[in-house]
Design a protein that fits this description.
heterodimer, A: alpha/beta, Transcription Regulator spoIIAA, 4 helices, B: alpha+beta
């Protein structure tokens, strides 16, 4: 696996759990890097089940949303499953306003998300 | 990197900017009840933009605006500044972004003007429409309109006025 600066990656069974290094995801260059690192998990490492845990994420710009959508497309193209969890209310509101809560499978917490992979 | 000093070159450039602004924005430039008013010209660089945004958020926090409203303003600022620097000025560091912001007890107002050719904000596809939900970009204007109390673009579309009314 390539070196990651914007994400922390761990395994839980056959699910790859991704956490974000930055509390505020708004810098253009960092978002580009974030996208590359997440895509590499699917395209290079061929991981199928991905959980993005948003614990500690306080801020998210629309550029970051674009990366998440692209990631979702890549995961689906690889016949995998992407879920999101631990999203703060103010961040969830961003997903709701953009209606992206309809595209992403968003769970309350990591435990609920992980158990939903096997069901 | 500090804010760009107003040099003669930029003052000359500003006159072009004000020509494009037109009469609409001049009528709102009063100091009616404003506690803070700040005007600056920054290069088309994220670091310069970040400094202005940080200054605004610090002032709002000092004035004890609630977190929810600071978040709304912060997100709108990030989206509007990216629009100006990236889409308006094409990241050309020779081009500048003119920023004027005002804060009163009841409201926050900002005008952001780039040196680009402008765009039609009503021509941006609705990102919440099923056909565009999966688009990789195009949500900035929608987010700004959702979070701010009032949003107005000038005729050309290279200048935006955003206002947030304080509710708490």
């Amino acid at each position: 696996m390539a070196e990651c600066h914007r994400i922390q990656v761990s395994e839980n069974g056959d699910v790859t759990v991704v956490r974000f290094v930055d509390r505020k995801i708004l810098d253009e260059a960092d978002i580009q890097e974030l996208g590359k690192e997440m895509y590499a998990l699917v395209e290079n490492d061929k991981r199928k089940n991905l959980l993005l845990n948003f614990t500690q994420v306080e801020f998210l710009s629309s550029a970051a949303l674009g990366k998440l959508i692209n990631l979702d497309k890549k995961v689906k193209a690889n016949s995998g499953t992407l879920k999101l969890s631990n999203i703060r209310p103010e961040i969830y509101e961003v997903f709701a306003i953009t209606k992206l809560n309809r595209i992403f499978d968003i769970k309350e917490d990591e435990k609920e998300a992980l158990s939903s992979f096997s069901s | 990197m500090g804010l760009l000093t107003l040099t003669r070159r930029h003052i000359a450039g500003l006159s072009d900017v004000f020509e494009k602004l037109g009469p609409f924005f001049l009528t709102t430039m009063t100091d009616d009840g404003w506690i803070w008013t700040h005007e600056t010209v920054i290069p088309s660089h994220q670091e310069a933009s970040r400094q202005v945004v940080r200054e605004i958020l610090d002032r709002l926090q000092k004035d004890e605006w609630i977190e929810q409203e600071i978040f709304a303003i912060h997100l709108s600022l990030e989206e509007a500044m990216v629009n100006a620097i990236k889409h308006g000025n094409g990241y050309d560091t020779r081009k500048t972004v003119h920023v004027v912001y005002r804060i009163s007890k009841e409201r926050f107002q900002i005008e952001i003007t780039d040196e680009g050719d402008g765009f039609d904000p009503d021509g941006v596809p609705d990102p919440t429409n099923d056909n565009h939900l999966n688009a990789l970009s195009g949500r900035g204007v929608h987010l700004i309109r959702s979070y701010m109390s009032e949003v107005k673009y000038n005729e050309i579309g290279n200048s935006v006025m955003m206002e947030k009314l304080r509710t708490a």
